[in-house]
Amino acid sequence: MLAGGVGGAKFLRGLRDHLRQVAPDGDGGTTAEVTVVVNTGDDVWLTGLRVCPDLDSIMYTLGGANDEVRGWGRVGESERVSAELTEYGVGWPWFTLGDLDLGTHITRSHLLREGLTLSEVTSRLTARWNLGVRLLPMSDHDVETHVVVADLDSPTGERSMHFEEWWVHYRAGLPALRFEQHGLSSSVAAPGVVEAIMGADVVLFAPSNPVVSIDTIVAVPGIRDALRATAAPVVGVSPIISGSAVRGMAHACLSAIGVETAADAVALHYGARDAGGLLDGWLIDESDAALTSSLGRAGLRVAAVPLWMNSVETSAALAAAALAEAAGLSV
Ligand code: FO1
Fold first, then answer.
1. Cα–Cα dist 47/97, whole Å
2. H/E element holding 38?
């Protein structure tokens, strides 16, 4: 599965729950093997620490330690250290690193300085949480999404900022002229990523942000080719329900690349594999069922199912629908 942060984590929790039901291993887990290729374009060096928002969202959510109310970070969090950082005038005062969360960033940064790769560090961090799935960063190289916005005060009329500044500080309120993935062209897929895609029974695109999460993963050299070549059916879940971005800043990102915020537009943005794109199947919400025939003509096998993930049960049902779609494609 390719995934970003919040939407990816919820969908993945449902997938794990569903697999534990249909393929139990006898002691609460599943015999199914799930590898998640996670977007690292949101990652940032902050006060000397490497912060990996999407990897951490997924790790905390599957580890049962995420703050379901805020939608990010740790449950039961405190912010004593963060207040000190602000007093010293370092870091981003509008980007809170909670005390428990700092435990993750300090451990990750320590291991990186010891020479471990991000993949090795992720394996060490996730081992503590018994996630039941394997998390792989899309690359072990630093790739960072930056957003270019209009700026009349600058000679070029533009200025660039890290994605997290655009999203958290400005709530995506500054229209994005374009996105730039720093470090992408010199990056390669992390070890195991291409093998996981080529050897998969099913490849799923989580309902994550199409632009800053899924597109970023696909753009890492080697990953698009693997997705085009794999014998596995590739099935995506729309992050958009009937014209309203389910969560986050999907609309702001899609309009920046000229894609309509609609379940069919995102599918056509990824493209049908028969037409040179990435998808064989696409899940849309029941409220978008009218899009089924036009997407069918575009070469996509479409299922209109309930897409809202407001509980583990609904997420599990959505994951089951995605696997059923893939099974239908495999015949
Ligand atoms: N999101 C916020 O809206 N405000 C924050 O202060 C904030 C801090 C933060 C710290 C670590 C981290 O891993 C994530 C954090 N996030 C925060 C969420 C982050 O913007 C999202 O997880 C993704 O980057 C967006 O998909």
1. 10
2. strand 35-38
Q: What is the pLDDT of residues 144-166, one digit of tens each?
A: 999 999 999 999 999 999 999 99
Does residue 51's CB lie within 6 angstroms of at least one atom of ligand 1? yes
Token pair of 325 as six digits? 């779609």
Give distance in angstroms: CA of 203 to centre of ligand 1. Answer: 27
* pLDDT, tens digit, 9 for 90 and up, residues 159-186: 999 999 999 999 999 999 999 999 999 9
Which residue's CA lies nearest to atom 3 of ligand 1? Answer: 168
Of ligand 1's listed atoms, the one at least distance from the Cα of 167 is 20
Residue with tokens 């996981």: 196
Structure tokens at 38: 């996670």
* Number of other residues whose CB lies within 10 A of the CB of residue 200: 21
Tell me how far the alpha carbon of residue 215 lies from the centroid of ligand 1, in angstroms. Answer: 20
The full set of domain ranges for the chain reads: 146-181
pLDDT-derived band at 130, boundaries 50, 70, 90: very high
